[in-house]
Amino acid sequence: MRNVGFTGLEANETYNPTRGINYAWEFIRYQIIVPLLQIALYICIGMSIMLFFERVYMAIIIVCVKCLGKKRYTAYQLEAIKQDLEKNKNYPMVLVQIPMYNEKEALVELECQKWIRSGVNIKYETRNNRNGYKAGALREGLKKSYVEACEFVVIFDADFQPEKDFLWRTIPYLLENPELGLVQARWKFGTAGVWRMTALIDAGGWKDRTTVEDMDLAVRASLKGWKFLFVGDLARVSIWKKWHVIYAFFFVRKIVAHWVTFFFYCIVIPTTILIPEVHLPKPLAIYLPAAITILNAVSTLRHVNSNKENGNIYHFNCLSWTYSQSYCSLCHRSIHLLVLWILFENVMSLHRTKAAIIGLLEANRVNEWVVTEKLGNTARKNNPRAVMRPRSRIGERIHFTELTLGMFLLHCAIYNMLYGNDHFYVYLLLQAAAFFVVGVGYVGTIVPN
């Protein structure tokens, strides 16, 4: 009887499906998940250290600028250049480009007809398509035959009016300094700038692969070595400077920063709570992100370096100097929004990481224009309440990816409260709430289809 009972117990233990599932889970947990999570943790810590040193480097430059008064710029005296130009009376030909689309106040055709009646050689032309949007319009305008006689090109936006002496304030610098490729106007002129035509062509012209066509052109021109408001001298850019631009601006800022924010703070750290076999160094998980956040927060207020007394225009090296000038001091009026800003940035890192992966792995999608177009006057007349139309369908309002991540973080927070001996649940609860807020469509602008 004992042998029969023992055999029956043995049979029950052998064919117990629950134990089989537990054994399989333990094998996958210790042999696959734990090693992969440990590797991901080391990679995220390494990228965090890279990001930390990059922030410290920029902080040192900011301290040198603000405290030591160190300045790396060249001052050009405008009045002396203007006097020499007036003596020679050798005025250059300047092409003026004003890209516009459905501008209500722009009566361009009527103005051109008025100028024609006054004897001015002017012709009104329009495109029959919107290929490339603003960059495409600028590029198309440079294909005209009369552009060959133009030495410089100035670009104005359609929503502001420059002062009458704008060219007198910009062109003389380009004439007297052949190493300059661009003169960018002061902030009161909006985004207006004057390009040397040879510099624009040398950099490859306008590209419609991005919505920030002006920055794209400036980076390409800087790598060509042209000198302008934010670039070094005309000499060939050294390998070190090119490496610095690629590493600091493109790799660290555009890839590492987004990946660390999403994978480390929203995936790896919460997962280590569920799998305690993975050792998470507390200093690297708490103090290092806090230091990076503080360095980032105190660099949010854009610093404007200008000298209105003598009217000089200063030129900086965009490879390092202006990068630090763009972020210099903490805006005290927004300090109370710091925590909300951190949580929102972590949520948005999901989309930035997705965009970075698409840009790296699917290069053919880089040229796709998935942007919000201007509605124009026609859309406003046909549907005056289009912009204010609320979302009625759940599929348009609910974002399931954000909600899924919110549920994951909430689960990790509850698990940490019940079984953990630390206080990670405080951060996890706040971050989960941020994902839920975005997931239900509470944050963002509603754009009609």
TrEMBL record:
Principal localisation: Golgi
TM spans (from-to): 32-53, 256-278, 284-301, 398-418, 424-447
Organism of derivation: Dorcoceras hygrometricum
Membrane topology: Multi-pass membrane protein
Single GO MF descriptor: mannan synthase activity
Xref: PANTHER family: GLUCOMANNAN 4-BETA-MANNOSYLTRANSFERASE 9 (PTHR32044), OS09G0572500 PROTEIN (PTHR32044:SF64)
Subcellular location: Golgi apparatus membrane
Keywords: Cell wall biogenesis/degradation, Glycosyltransferase, Golgi apparatus, Membrane, Transferase, Transmembrane, Transmembrane helix
Alphabetized Gene3D superfamilies for the sequence: Spore Coat Polysaccharide Biosynthesis Protein SpsA, Chain A (3.90.550.10)
InterPro entries assigned: Glyco_trans_2-like, Nucleotide-diphossugar_trans
Gene Ontology BP terms: cell wall organization
Domain Glycosyltransferase 2-like: from-to ranges: 113-197
GO cellular component, one term: Golgi membrane
UniProt protein name: Mannan synthase 1-like
